[in-house]
Amino acid sequence: MKLSDKAEEILESMWIAIEEEGKGFVDLEDVGVTVDDEALKELIGHAFVELKGERIHFRPEGRVEGEKTIRRHRLAERLMMDVLNIRGDSAEIKACQFEHLLNEGVDTKVCTMLNHPTTCPHGKRIPPGECCEEARRSGDLGVVPLTELRAGEEGEIAYIQTEDSKKMQKLMAMGVLPGNRINLTQSFPSYIFRVGFSEFAIDTAMAKEIFVRK
Amino acid sequence: MDVFKKKNSCHSSANGSTGAARKVALVGNPNVGKSVLFNALTGAYVTVSNYPGTSVEVSRGSATIDGGEYEIIDTPGMYSLLPITEEERVAREILLNESPDVVLHVLDARNLERMLTMTLQLIDAQLPVILVVNIMDEAERMGLSIDLELLREKLGIPVIGAATAKKRGLDEIRRAIASYRKGSHAVFGYSRRLEADIDSVASLIRGEYPLAKKSLALLLLQRDEEVTALVEQREGEGFPQIRERVKEKSFERRESFHLDLSMERKGIVKGLLDGVFNLPDKRVVTASERLSRLAVRPATGVPLLLVVLYFGLYKFVGDFGAGTLVDFLEGKLFEEMFNPWISGVVKGVVPWVAIQELFVGEYGVLTLGLRYAVGIILPIVATFFLFFSILEDSGYFPRLALLVDRIFKKIGLTGRAVIPMVLGFGCDTMATMVTRTLETVRERVLATLLLALAIPCSAQLGVILSLLSRAPGALLVWSLCLLLIFLVVGFAAARLVPGETPMFYMELPPMRLPQLSNVFTKTYTRMQWYFMEILPLFILASVLLWIGKLTNFFETAVETMSPAMAAIGLPKEVAVAFIFGFFRRDYGAAGLYDLQTNGLLDPRQLTVAAVTLTLFIPCVAQFLVMKKERGWRVAIMIGLFVSLLAFASGWLLNQFLLVTGIL
Fold it and tell me: Any CB–CB contact under 8 A between B113 and chain A?
């Protein structure tokens, strides 16, 4: 089952209005459709929504589907911003196009890659998926910057993200290499960590560039 | 002689070295005990000099091993054959240009895994490497076991376990140097793709180089500028083709060439260490680690810093150096014995009063210049450098750096700058030179400014401490003033000077008990440099003052400056101290000392004079170094700014003290 793009957008608008803004229903004109709209018919056909006069109501299945749709939309937004570094209006437009590709399976992969984000770039909540619940249950924090470790915690260096290649070389020469174990011994006033039997001190800006898998 | 026809030393005759002494270069990461090994191998004849065109110091010494003459070179610390810092560049220059007969790679046994990557690079380059696995004692204490025999077999080069600080392994190292014959060594294979890339570049290289072609190709692919220039010069017409090939290959691998290479080397090292390096089941926490933890936690680190400053600076340098020693040398030796005696001698030999004055008069070269230099400045500076060298060798500075990094960021510096700043309390001139080690030009300018303005050098500090300690409260006012000006000016400058503050990263070497012989060598070298630097200036100052006195220029200058002195509430005689101060700040402070002894200053005037003089224009030597390091424009701007601010602060402080009547 694959809904049309327009049907997905109607579900999204409904979900925001009903779940987040606390309304009981939406009017046809709120979502900009008429009674004989194809997308609306599609939704009614799947028994996701009911039409009562001018008002559209969720059916339980529709509510679940709406949540999944909004989740895909907000994940797409994060992907645009965090990974592809596209911002502003064009990010929004691209996200709207992109979300429809995040079907079953792909959203889980994107969500895991983004380390199960809980909010979209505009600060709205991303409804958690099964992968998020799973990650929380297993206590897997995924890949986090060194700044997220508490003093005394250990992890494995996943990657270094810096635009300064000299600094990257220096770090690598000092043994900060993907795959090595890293042990954070202190986080204030500077970050102190140990790799092997060597200790290093770095500032916050630098600690943000070392990503660690717990 | 046939020796030079031997295949492997074909390039050692090329640089026209004297031929007789074979060269041994010590290379390795910082803090692995290279200098200790260097001191152990060499005798008393050591020269420390800046590598041509740089401010990086390189020590050279000679040694007789098994009847043969050797020149031992202690290179600056390097992490990799691909240099990033100036120190690393110099270390590699030595390997490239001086073609050592033996390269001793010294590394820390505990960090074998990390440091062995450089051994790989040296072997790749087909340099004559002997591996010294140092600090074995500490490694054993931590429960590490290392199978050196197996490592030797795998690497195919001599491998020696040592603990140079405990004199362990020295004889074996000497034997290995004496019996070194370049033979076969292991060859490490990279992945097929990398080998193909290396080959495609290496096969184009035709000339003779001190490094193997494989290694050159790797450095070219890593976009090493110096090696590129070297290859361009040697290859001539063939170079454009090499350049194109390198460009093509590095574009293909633009995503992550450095990382890929590091990961491959890491893989090779892992293979080498399999069965060689065995970790203990449980991590042993040593006493040095516990001390280190005390030094880096703010709750214990700050009190520890205060204790270090109190006992090290105040008690040892201040009380003992500037008090006891100065009293003895200046008071007893010069005032009571040397000066009366030399005055008698000179007056007996030289009949002309003017010439007598030049040597033994009020500003005499011997009675004033030498007395200041040897009697007052020498003991203070000596105790300071001793204190500084002990701290340096104990591994305390990197810990101090991380502790102050956050605060230093506010004044546009990183924690790294704490080393020149502390050194500034010894000698601002030397510290200004050391600002070169800071990463960005902006940071260097800011550090130079703060050194010129608010960091009093040990000589000046010693004199001022002993001056002000006689007036209760004055010392406190003086310190608070300087601290305030340091922070305010730093804060403002950080906002006004364009540019960004660089990131801070530093290796923390293990804390250890400094080796006395090493500390003394360092102190001695610094003292020597300092003395050579200041003695001529002191003598020059004496001569100029003498001329000034003869020609009355001096009195005119004092008269000219008296309105400025009056404005900040000081008697005009203080102008003398300021004119002295231009030659050396401590010289000026010493001048204040004389004024106060004669009872010409009350506590308020003393404090104002001390603050103004501390802030005042740096000594001639520091000014010259500022010019050399930062250029005329920056040096003059800093000089003008500092002078104006000094008088402005003096004026403000005087008004403040008059109104509040604190002193």
Answer: yes
